[in-house]
Amino acid sequence: MMGWIENLPAPLVVVLTAMLPVVELRGAIPLGVALGLPPLAAMVFAMAGTMLPVPFILLGFEPVSRVLRRRLGLQRFIEWVYDRTQARAGTARRYGWFGLVFLVALPVPGTGAWTGALLASFLGYSFRSAMLAIATGTFLAGSLVTLLLLLGIIVTGS
Description:
Blueprint: H1 2-6, H2 10-18, H3 24-34, H4 39-51, H5 54-71, H6 75-86, H7 90-105, H8 113-123, H9 127-150
């Protein structure tokens, strides 16, 4: 698998990495810098990759989860995803839109755009409001990770 990844351009590797849940931009920005991208470019590509799945999650999670529950018997898995996301809902419930921004902006595992999109879907945010909150949080998280990288607090291993 690593053979074909090595042949991809660094920006594409960063975008694909940032699309992964849990990893998102907190892993993709340092990877991009390690691959030779300037920090700002790594941040932009990572933010783009992080945001790519968001509209699909916002629009598709509920209908897809209904099908998975009924037809494929994945009720337990869907409940696990729902429970895991609900466990992080306190801030978003307490502070509304700004809470959702904060949840996405906090660059630690278990937060981020995937969790924010699922949570926005569960809490009934409008598509536009959710996209704006998640994009804002993604920008803040990307800026923070890039700043920590520039300050030497996050190292790339290169």
